[in-house]
Protein: Solute carrier family 2, facilitated glucose transporter member 5
Organism: Tursiops truncatus
Amino acid sequence: MDSEEAHSAPVARDPGRPAPLECAHLTSGTPRGGRRKDWSCSLVVASLVGAFGSSFLYGYNLSAVNAPTPYIKTFYNESWERRHGHRIDLDTLTLLWSVTVSIFAIGGLVGTFLVKLIGKVLGRKFTLLVNNGFAISALLLMACSLQAGAFEMLILGRFIMGVDGGIALSVLPMYLSEISPKEIRGSLGQVTAIFICIGVFTGQLLGLPELLGKESTWPYLFGVIAVPVLVQLVSLPFLPESPRYLIFEKHDQAGAEKAFQTFLGKEDVSREVEEVLAESREQRNSRLVSVLELLRSPSVRWQVITVVITMACYQLCGLNAIWFYTNSIFGKAGIPPEKIPYITLSTGGIETLAAIFSDVQL
């Protein structure tokens, strides 16, 4: 059999390997354009579990700190008074609270710098699994800070949680794009954004006075982080690694074939494997260019500028700051304090619906 026939031949499934989770209504569906969807329940589970334990946590921690703001500031005051014998002055309290809120973003920046090293050594799936260690450390620090009487634990926990978010939001989109067929890659990528919105909404919901938004229960808001962490730790190990990573970094073609078979829900994955192999060969023969070289190249300059401007506008629109300080913003606007939590919840609900609607339109 020559090489061309070998590439076109179906890849036999290992009889010792369990069959992929398949859903008949998924594998037989036909999207717009008349092409068959090749995917399985394993792909759906990977996207949902990955997003729930990653982007959901990021969104949750954007909003969870908003509702208990007055109670946390009271905790800061009491901790300061026990140590120094007097209450904290307003300027210092404002500074400490600003650090508590903003250090989450600083941790995210640190996390993004760690991704390249960790992701290459551990792979996409195991990076997501190891990243849960940051989340567990953060939730223990934040949830136990009141009991320990140390507000520094809350600040440090926010920083570590930011590291978790920076790693998760960098690795998860890579993992989802590399395990999904091209026909649904864009829609599956939107799962990350949808779960961020769901996380924001959940943080606002649990922060209601009727639930965990009370002086005696605000530490439990951070303890909730354990739920998505445990779900991901229990579920993700049973799913394959990214086939693209297996070929590019581990040179494991057999493992990549099995991963494709699991995620796509079909036996013949020779076309998908060959596409990744061709990309790998092309990458070995190409040279990486710097950002400055990209900007100097007329063929891609405007594409780079467009991407930079779009992402800059998205990040600088101030949405995260709104979630951090929603109650304060609505209070300054003259809204009665007893109504603010429910108006805040409505904003998160609208954002979630908008994210879901945009995915449907895609």
